[in-house]
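yo

u said u wanted the structure for the complex thing, so here. seqs first:
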Amino acid sequence: MHLQLFLVVSALWTLVLGGLTDDQLLNIVKNNKNKLLNLNDENYEAILNGPRDYHIVAMFTSESSHINCVLCREIGPEFELVANSWYQDHPEGITDFDPEGKDIAPKNVYFFKAEYLESKNLFGTFQLNSIPKIFYFKPSDKAGPNNYQSEKLEYQFFQGDHKSLMIQWLSVLTGHHYNLHIPIDKTKVITNVVWVVSSLIVIKKFHKNIFAVLRSRIPWSVLSIIATLFFITGYMFNQIRGTPYVIDHDNGKVDYFTKGQQNQLGVETQIMSFIYGALGLLVVVLIKKVPEIKHDTVALILVSVVSTLIFLLFSLILAIFGLKGMGFPYKFINFF
Amino acid sequence: MKFVNHFGGNVISIGGEKSVLPNGIRSFLNELGIYPSPKNFNYLDHFNTKDGSVVLSSENNLVPGNRLVESLDNVKYHGNGALISNNELIFPIVKSSSTGYTGKAGEQVDSSTAWTLGEQGFLAVGLQALNNARVAWLGSSELLQFEHIYKWAFQKQGVLKLQYVEHYNTKNETAQNPHLYRINDDVVYTIGVSESVDGEWVPYQIASDDDQLQVSFKLLDPYQRLNLVSVGPSDSPDGPATAQTYRVNFTVPDHHGVFTFELDYKRVGLSYLQDKRVVTVRHLANDEFKRSWDITNSWLYIVSVAIVIAAWFLFVISYIYVGNTNYQKKNV
Amino acid sequence: MGKSQLKVLGVPIETIRVLLRVIIFISIAGAAISSRLFSVIRFESIIHEFDPWFNFRATKYLVSHSFYEFLNWFDDRTWYPLGRVTGGTLYPGLMVTSGAIWHILRDWFSMPVDIRNICVMLAPAFSGLTAIATYFFTKEMKDSNAGLLAAIFMGIAPGYISRSVAGSYDNEAIAITLLMATFYFWIKAMKLGSVFYATWTALFYFYMVSAWGGYVFITNLIPLHVFVLILMGRYNKKLYTAYTTWYALGTLASMQIPFVGFLPIRSNDHMAALGVFGLLQLVGVGNYVKAQVPSRQFKSFLVVSLTLVFLLGIGGLFGLTAMGWIAPWTGRFYSLWDTSYAKIHIPIIASVSEHQPTAWPAFFFDTSMLIWLFPAGIYMCFQELRDEHVFVIIYGVLCSYFAGVMVRLMLTLTPIVCVSAAIALSKLFDVYLNIVDLFTTTEEEKGKKPKAFPAAALISRVVVLLSFAFYLFYFVLHCTWVTSNAYSSPSVVLATNNPDGSQHIIDDYREAYYWLRMNTPEDAKVMAWWDYGYQIGGMADRTTLVDNNTWNNTHIATVGKAMASPEEVSYKIFRQHDVDYVLIIFGGLLGYSGDDINKFLWMVRIAEGIWPDEIHERDYFTERGEYKVDKDASKAMKESLMYKLSYYRFAELYGGRDGADRVRNQQIPANDPPQLSTVEEVFTSENWIVRIYKVKDLDNVGRDLKQATAFEQPGASKKNRSIKKPKLDIRI
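structre next:
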């Protein structure tokens, strides 16, 4: 008598507060085009409250432009990729529920995503003060609300490739093996094909002009000299280190140069390559153009102007270099 | 403490029903991992009691393979019990029976008041430090009837000595203990072990298979771990035919590196024998590889070289003579 | 009047030119050598930095053993207990060179010079030779005027001095000389189609291969040059002769170096050379066919054969790589192209400061005004664009990219910067220096009208000449200043200035290494981070676990793990590896920033690469993601062996107040000093830079070392009257 009553009550309880069953969820996933299910204020209690006969992985994030979360936008696609890969491998959920020889009894895995703007209550109950967060909830027998709070496990954002890190983390927790299926970006393929075809057509049509350009030394020399100028003024440093272009201070002051021999800003590359290029050009003018001028006085004026410019620019280099610190003692003119 | 740790001294400590351990000795024993029961605690075993005193038996109380006490039958016992830690150097000699416990006489026994309960209690314990200093703790002076215990504790028994360790390359037997071996060399490793019996050094014979002397050839992990084979008595610095020779020969692994011959012999009731010899195993030198004809794979290349040379000669000859005639013919 | 009859003071002008040239050479060599002697004069004749110590040690081994023993050297004093097949994993060129010099001086000239002095002086001596090789190289590009300018630039350019000051006994010291010599002979061979010069190219290439891993640069640059020439339609028989001779001989020769072995036919780094070799054969055949058959047939023949060859080649390359016959490109090579590759995959490469990208000040610092003459020189090369100028252009563009990606490749960029700057400058001087021209009149003008004094032309020339003379003068000042301030510190001995301006020498390293040598058993094993492996081996002569030859990442990670883990874990590693002493570098007292705490994250990262379950980089940062060593330091940080070893007893120096770490500008709390139980401090150098700890033996009576240490502490054995039942694990 007692027992029966208890059973009835607990069944009711489950209906009201308990989690969805595995089959229900699987149906939802199968009928849903987006395999990453939404977790929001309406459904989170139904999903997270125990007992749960499945693994849940939920990402708490926000990709809205109000909340400028860079990491969220980076992580989002990777998380989605992991989820999609899982469903691609197991469109009917897992079929082998045999716990024989496994550390963790095999259960289905469901992936959820919670957007902050749609689920403020949910975020409130979790008391998150930073996003993104990825939580894992293990299958649980415990009925009742809010048990998930103590059952969650948090994913740590270490450095590295998050796709594979997430997979490692999940396979340890769920005991499943995960594959990554990186979908081929169709638009990329199409643009590439279009690009190749159109360039082939262009080559076919204008091949004489193109060959002429390729054979002419001017484009090559311009290309190599510009490349050289960029390389020797730290272009690769900017690329690798991702240096800021300039530093904006709060008081409106803008820094164009930083201190230190092994440090620079993006704009420095432009300034320096311009100065180097100008200096090189002036030297070329001295070598090539001046001797062609027959009139001595004109030549003298040109030479004086060019020499002065060289002197000024060289002094400018020294002055800028002096700004970089290191106690560099030489200077021609005090610019700064 | 220093006495044992630095000077290798030997200590025997005996408890009893009424005796009180001085604090110094107690903390010393605790430091080693032996925790004798405090004052007024006695070892009791209601199932094996005769005439008001506990009677020990080999079956219940003797720790097998301890080498010091062979039989315990009908020994009456009035004394304490002790707990011991997981210290690897401690070995129990006499343990409590599964029904025995140590508690205050006349008090109710439960797990909180009893000092020892069941087989986790010990009545006699030995400890041999790594420097072969020995400490024995006996729960009662009655156990002193076993002369082996105090003989052992005062280094009169079970004292082994490693007389010599030698290793050499079978290709060059005159060079003893070389520092350098080559991969795949054959090595012979020999040791001589003596045992002290009544102050005399005599060859030490291993008693059973469990007591095998083993040598490992290690580089981080043992590449070889071999039983040494007893060969016979040999001379040692202590006199002729005083050491038993053990020997093994094996092939150095095909792996270069710094290897260690490690002998680590730790048996209950015997002094420890430990020895490490570091040797270098080098790779093949440039002139120790197979050459030309010895490599079967090379035959193909040697033949092809010969063919190319022959073909070149043919070509040159034909170019000079055959070609020339053609040329002249054409001209004509 | 012919030029050959021109005489000054009765001596033919050509003789005077030669004499002048020799004098100039001698002074260039003098300048090159003397500007590299700052460190010897300031400090002493000592080997610098890290790698040179290994080279020095290997050289000592070479001169005290036979050459074959050196070749088969199995070093059991490094990488304990793995050992290192040193003879087969080094580039022996440097050691053999100095060994040969030592033998020649001793046996032929009866000059018993200490091998150390030869090693110290080898780099400056070779810099003189580099200047001469650069002269010949540039002479091929333009003329001897440009050659002399390039030679003096090369002699004093800081970019090259940085690797060749006295005491910097490293492979690069002789490699740059060989690089320039190889290139010179290559240009010569290519111009003349000479087998003789091509053989010399191969010979120097072999020497280069034996001396420096950077030989791959030549292996790829020469084929690239040939390839570009073929694309430009400049194929000729001379090119064919030069390249095939060089490739066949050079490859065979390079395979004689044990460390290189079969790489030239197995590794992708060398495939370009092989491919171009094949291409040349095809182009050669094609040219032959073209000469024999009508052009229409030739065209179809060309199309068919080209597609076939292309497909076969690509397929073969991929197939062989997939089957594992050809090794993929090495990690260092990848990191040149995909710049984030190293950061993700190979922390050990990324951790080396030499492998960082270069910011622009470094270029200017190392070459001064040459850097802006460099593009002008490239432009001049484009103007003429002979075959050899193509070489300069390719070299210049490629190398400026490489130098931008990796600081250490500044070294290979410097020669070409010098050469092309010299070309530009000597063109300038050609135009403006010839003042005599102004006063001589040509045959046509003769007798027409008397020329006026060319004042304007003269002034313009003087203006240009004077300003550039001034720049050159400044260039010398710049080079001297840079050399003296930046590149002349041995880094083994540090120098600071006292408040009164006098110099103060900090000699902690040698003090500590000497202590090790004198106070530890000869077979003691010392564990330290790999940066110091060579120095410990060279100066202290003790066995090390890891060193700067980072061939075994796992072993390095083991050391990293020992440093990053709590004491108990480290102690297991110590026991397993028979470690006797642990040596760390600590700069907190002095403010020496190159210390182990600053390198600590790399240790963690490298260890995490092997044991991702046990070590997490994140754990060493505070909650807020800061790298801290003060009271906010994370738990993992405070428990790590490195932290404890660094700050052990540090706060005691400050008499109970918090210790001040001057590198990180943080306070080390005095109320929570690190406790050590498995190691004991045995030595700390004068300025605390080097701290050495001895690893304790197992406790005699089988306690764990933490308990044993607690027992030994005075005051720890307080009388405990109440006897409580101990809580013990069940005995197994």
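Chains B and A do not touch (no CB pair under 8 Å). Helices of chain B lie at 2-5, 23-32, 58-61, 147-153, 298-331.
cya
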